[in-house]
Design a protein that fits this description.
Elements lengths: L2 H7 L12 H20 L4 E4 L5 E4 L8 E7 L6 E3 H5 L13 H12 L3 E8 L2 E3 L12 E3 L5 H14 L12 E5 L7 H16 L7 H17 L7 H8 E3 H10 L6 H15 L3 H17 L6 H19 L8 H14 L9 H13 L1
Parallel strand pairs: 3-5, 4-6, 5-8
Antiparallel strand pairs: 1-2, 1-9, 2-3, 7-8
Length: 365
Amino acid sequence: MNLKNEIIENKPRENAGARSSSRFDYQKDWSICQLLDFHNEKSDYLFVFDYQEDLMIMDSESNPKKVSFYQIKGKKNKGYWTLAELLKSPISKKNEILLSIVGKLYDCKLKAKKSTESLNFVSNIGFKVSDKEFKSLEKKEICIIELNSDDKQKIQQKLIQEHPNEEVTEYEEITFLKVVELNLDDSPTYTKGKIADFLNERYPNAKHNIPLIYQHLFNEVKRKSNYNKDIISFDDLIKRKAIGKTNFQEMLDVCGASKDYNYEWRNIEAIFSNEGVKYSTIKKIKKSWDTVEVERMEPNNSIIKSIVKRVQELVKFAVDNNLINDDTLMECVHKIKDEYIKQPINQSIYDDSFIEAIILSEVYE
């Protein structure tokens, strides 16, 4: 059985539904930080949110072969994690004994079998375990294989207890305890800084509205995480619970991450003035221009996505076929709009000025 089928046929342990506490916001912020790193460093990937684990990362969005699982737990009280805490079986509100932290990670391996690349427990504080060098609290990453024989035996016994019908094997070299920089009390600030660095590196000439872009990404991860209906296929998983390389780039494009809207508008306004465009027309388009900047940040706005995609196609066709080379900027907008009207996106939310502002943002680019 391939990985796509294994993930779909082996259903998650539980369906937590909507989550709103700061601890779960912390999970989303850390996932966003990882998403930015992967987008910079990997040619392909797929992030799946709150399905088998808090986060699953596959090596491909279309044909994955390997998957890593991440359990993410921020901890407010200062100190460290102990082995006893990692092996503790919590009790549910229904008085049911649940799997321990290590037990849940191993359960993921059982579901993905040999496709499992790594099992990871991620936190903002360190781990006090008996590693062979006795320096566990100084380490940012500890592999279970590094622990002394007594602690490894305790883990083995716990896993056998929690998975009595399974052969418990081949997990020590792929299971990691990781300490991350993300602070539990101020994770949004750190994540916004990470987004700023990411965008400045990719789009150095644009001035970005970081709070707006952060909220856009956070809302999308939250939406994916909170989807709690049955997943019936791998395509359904991608649509409902995941963000892949292609999808993330589309999100950046739609929200205008490569643009400095204020800078672009100043240039556009000067061009319009030179072209003799009436002040009332400029003022009307500016109002729609400001609305476009905000609306493009809404991840669930499928209408905006469709309009932008349609306009981009029309602008590309016009440029490739030299149809707007000799026109003024306003004439370019009107030509594209005339073509758009022939086959518009079916919607009743946005008026003509809004459509013109979207066309303007794509034509000027």
